[in-house]
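Continuing from the previous page of notes. For each protein in this section, the sequence appears first, followed by its structure tokens. Read the first protein now.
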Amino acid sequence: MALIALAMILGGGGTTNPQTEMILQVSTALLAIPLVVSSRWQSGLGAVPVPAWILAGLVLLLPVLQLIPLPPSVWQALPGRAIEIQSLALAQTNQSWMPLTMAPARTFASLLAMICPVLVLLQVSRLSLSGRTMLCAVIVAVGLLSVLLGVLQLSHTGGWDWSLYAQFNEGYLVGFQANRNAEADIFLATMLALGVLAASRLGDARKHGMTWAGLQIGLLAFAVALVLTGSRTGIALCVVMGIFLAVMLWPTLRWQRAAVWWLGGAFVAVIIGSGALLQLQSVQKIVARFSLTREARWDLWADAIYASHQVWPFGSGIGTVVPMLEAAERLEVVDTTRPVRVHNDWLEWVLEGGLPGIVILGLILVVVAYLVVRALRTTRRSEAVGARRAQVIFACGFLLIEALHAIVDYPMRCMSLATLAAVAVAFLLEPAAAQQNRQ
């Protein structure tokens, strides 16, 4: 629980704000020590499932392989190394052993960042059903704190920016993140987690009026906060989140026909409320962002594709996107800004990983798809617990949201979102057997 909370709070700085991520990495190592060396702390935890070990190995495989030193006859034959060879020849060090990655320090830093979500995947996979539900409560709690922090950011109370980072999307609600798109995904995950908590309580025949009231108030607060992030894709993906949330809660409704009328009324209320909100200047600024007349992502994609061809088929190395984009940037798009990301996680992975990266990513997707199919089949059984079904839907919904958002952004390059993705994958695995029987 502490690890998930720290990841959501400290893991949103990104490349331009590495300080908090360094604190998170050290904290993760310290929190993992008792879970590994102390049998007392492992009491009640199950064994790590085999698929979790496989995914952990696949995730870390590529950066580890890219850091292995190669003899000069091998690395000098790799594509895109001509300038590096000439530079090292000037210092008479061109016969040194060099790794496959073109920036070893950046790749090693990326490897350290990838270890954190991998550890989360392994440990969450050992939890019981109730333990995983408690993690959803942590996600909701940190989401609420993020909303409160975002209110302070928008109001500039005391004349402060109220951000953990020196560089962030100023003027928008970003909470504990530096990027508004990452904050939007945090709220989408929070709403799904709130649905898991509600579904865990609504499985019996009681009315649970307070639960329904809390769910509606929470969803409304997070939806408004989502809009105030100004993330265009995040706002659009709210539709996907709503579909998964409806599937999650539909079996718990006692009066499903009446619920349809309630949903219709809520939709009309949202339309009317949206018309009122459009009169606000802050909301008009967000609506204006939906114009695609000037979209810098397209130029970044073109440069990334060109750079990928220069280092194909072995890639440039995980974490090397900044020097690669700077070298490939066309003169007609050069300005005072610095390209930090490709704004397409899939394309960026191809640039940095090449053909080996595509193969490893394909294997990861196959394993995750297998876990999704297996989890959905087990939750269709009549004896399946409602909380287990809700957690599986949470996992499927959040992973789909991240996959779609990765087309136009870089959610998996954010440690907080990568950690939540690891939690979602772990939710697909069966809970610890001993604890499951107690449920």
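Done with the first. The second protein uses the same format. Note its length before scrolling.
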Amino acid sequence: MSKKLCLCLGTVLCLSGCANLAPLYSRPDAPVPDAWPEGPALQEDVAQTGKIAAGIGWQEFFLDPRLQQVIGLALENNRDLRVATLNIERTQAQYRISRAELLPRVDATADHSSQRQPEDLTSNGQGETSHQYRVGLGVSSYELDLFGRVRNLRDQALEQYLATEQTRRAVRISLVAEVAVSYLNLAADRERLQLARQTLETQQASFRLIQRRFELGASSELDLRQAQTRLDAARVDIARYTTLVAQDENVLNLLSGAPIPDELLPQILTEAPGPVQDIRPGLDSGVLLDRPDVLGAEYQLRGANANIGAARAAFFPRITLTGSVGLASDELAGLFNSGSGAWVFAPKFTVPIFDAGRNQANLRVAEVDRDLAVARYEKTIQTAFREVADALAQRTTIDGQLAAQQSLTGATEASYRLSQARYEKGIDSYLIVLDSQRALYGAQLELIGTRLIRLLNLVTLYKVLGGGAAG
């Protein structure tokens, strides 16, 4: 009988999973143009220079050795990345559970039971005690997946796992970009602080000079008070940039998950040895389909598609099997004697007849979830396209803006020197000198800011194009 049971189980296992009611999956068309935007802010050389971002690892893109070490610390210690990694392990375990449902669970069992019948329930009027010993192998409630319900649930769990892996990749890229942005912001704020301190020294020297001239009657009190206002303004800027530098360092420490050694922190932005290299977006917007967030949204869509198949299968009969084969005896010593074999085969056939619309509602929920996943997928692509287009628009104008700002700063510096010389010769008032100082200081700050914007634009472009996603 045990051979017949094994043959029966083998036959039904072969029948399992012979149908799949999930809709045929087809990737939705990307709801964005094939080509990148064109216009005055987007030149043709955007697609002709530099390397494609998606093919560059972060170690190749960020060329500053100190920045590379800081990013390495963040990838090792950052808690957000650790949470994303643990989520992958969790969903991987859930997928293994779903996959295990495709095969029967076989357990080895051994049990003993004793039962005493009272005297008034026995045929001979005497109390009796009976014993039963059993050992065997059993299959408990194994569902034959004739209509793909279990298999589609397995597929849905697999897609969820793959989506979680893409989430981790997206977190990794975002973390690398955030560290780089914070590092460059710190360098820029330290350079602004250094400029403010240099300006303070200049203003202190000017104030002392004006004060002596005022005491000698060569300058008016107005000149003295105007010099003092510039001196106090420089002190305010020093306090402000000192705070910003401390906050930038706190952000870097948070991202890296540990305090960063001082020797790894940047001093000023202009001394950074080539922190980033130039990149290009690729020939068309199809590169967006390789972004981790877009891939993750597609995996979510595929999972929702598989879930429809599981919901459809609920309308069809379900067959579950329970069976065991082994040995049984009323005495432990006779458990392995000839003739002690025992088996149980108990298939269960369930046909849905009336469920008050539960299955239909579950199917509708699955279909709506699929439609929602399509909308999220399309919105993710549209957002990605907009992010890249914005970064490209800024990139094609930032070099011209930087060149103009450098020229402006040089001209303002020359104007300041001339106004200082004319004041010392008594040709112009000190107000003109103050205006020139203020213009020069503002132009120098703008130059630092423009340099920072150019570098941040490259980092943003690298991030939104999915750069280093495979790393």
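What the second structure shows: The longest strand covers residues 128-144. The first helix runs from residue 2 to 15. We return to this in next week's lecture.
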